[in-house]
Structures are given as structure tokens and as C-alpha cells.
Automatic annotation (TrEMBL):
Record's protein name: DUF2283 domain-containing protein
Species, as recorded: Streptomyces rubiginosohelvolus
Length: 78
């Protein structure tokens, strides 16, 4: 399992598999309370979860280990 977090949007993506190939997530299902979107493959297997208001919903231990995807890339060093 791997977690990516975008602080500017307060959204997290929880990968339940190592990698999701382009086009592999063929069905997106909103959670009943509209707090998340569940991504499924063509066999009905859950691949990942896009979570809204992540800081409030995820445990701080999980958030501290999340990969931040909202940071500006650093320029290459020479």
C-alpha cells in the first residue's frame, strides 16, 4: 500500500496495488457519503481510493508517511 497526498487540494490517493497502469482503473464509484472515489479494474478488484478532506480522515501516522505530490519540483543541480 502506498499513499500520495496533495496538501493544496487536501486529497489523498491510497494505492492498494503497487502500480495502476493507464486505463487499468475502468470503473470509478463514489462512496455513499461522497468522501471518496473507489477505483476498480475490469475484474471488479479494488485498485485504489481517492479520498477527499484527507487530513481530517486519515490517521496522522499514515499522513506523515505519505508521498507529497503538491510540491514544486526542484531544479536539477549541476
Amino acid at each position: 500500500m502506498r499513499v500520495e497526498y496533495d496538501a493544496s487540494a487536501d486529497m489523498a490517493y491510497i494505492y492498494l496495488v503497487d502500480r495502476i497502469a493507464p486505463g487499468e482503473a475502468v470503473r470509478q464509484v463514489p462512496a455513499e457519503d461522497n468522501t471518496a472515489i473507489l477505483d476498480y479494474d475490469s475484474d471488479g478488484r479494488l485498485l485504489g481510493i481517492e479520498l477527499f478532506s484527507a487530513r481530517r480522515r486519515l490517521h496522522s501516522d499514515l499522513m506523515s508517511g505519505a508521498e507529497r505530490i503538491d510540491r514544486e519540483p526542484r531544479p536539477p543541480t549541476e
